[in-house]
């Protein structure tokens, strides 16, 4: 098992993470919460929806900190 898969297996559901995985033509990333995991892959809940990723396609995975708090809009006078 590669280190990315070990990391995925060890993190609790709900952990915010980024997973780099293979797609046709290259690689892409999924950034969001680890929402599901089974023997064949995992699901990352991103802002655009759920992304199902097969373990065979995973290249890198790591936990990331929460997103920064958005600042209030500046009011122009």
In short:
The protein has 77 residues and is mainly beta. The protein has one helix at 3-10, and strands at 16-23, 26-37, 41-46, 49-54, 58-63. It is 10% helix and 49% strand.
Report on this model:
The chain is mainly beta. The protein has a single domain (3-63), classed as SH3 type barrels (Roll), CATH 2.30.30. Helices cover 10% and strands 49% of the residues. It has one helix at residues 3-10, and strands at residues 16-23, 26-37, 41-46, 49-54, 58-63. Strands 4-3-2-1-5 form a five-stranded antiparallel sheet. A hairpin with a 2-residue loop joins strand 1 and strand 2. The longest helix has 8 residues, at 3-10. The radius of gyration is 15 Å and the shape is elongated. 13% of the residues are buried.
Topology (SSEs and partners):
Elements: H1 3-10, E1 16-23, E2 26-37, E3 41-46, E4 49-54, E5 58-63
Distance between the termini: 59 Å
Helix and strand sequence: HEEEEE
Number of domains: 1
**CATH second-level architecture:** Roll
What best-fitting shape do the alpha-carbon axes yield?
elongated
Mean pLDDT comes to: 91
Give the low-confidence spans.
none
By secondary-structure content and strand pairing, the structural class works out as mainly beta
Name some characteristics of this structure.
1 helix, SH3 type barrels, 77 residues, mainly beta, five-stranded antiparallel sheet, elongated
């Amino acid at each position: 098992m590669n280190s990315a898969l070990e990391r995925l297996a060890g993190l609790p559901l709900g952990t915010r993470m980024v997973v780099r995985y293979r797609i046709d033509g290259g690689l892409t990333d999924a950034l969001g919460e680890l929402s599901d995991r089974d023997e064949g892959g995992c699901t990352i809940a991103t802002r655009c929806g759920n992304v199902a990723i097969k373990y065979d396609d995973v290249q890198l995975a790591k936990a990331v900190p929460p997103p920064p708090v958005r600042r209030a809009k500046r009011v122009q006078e």
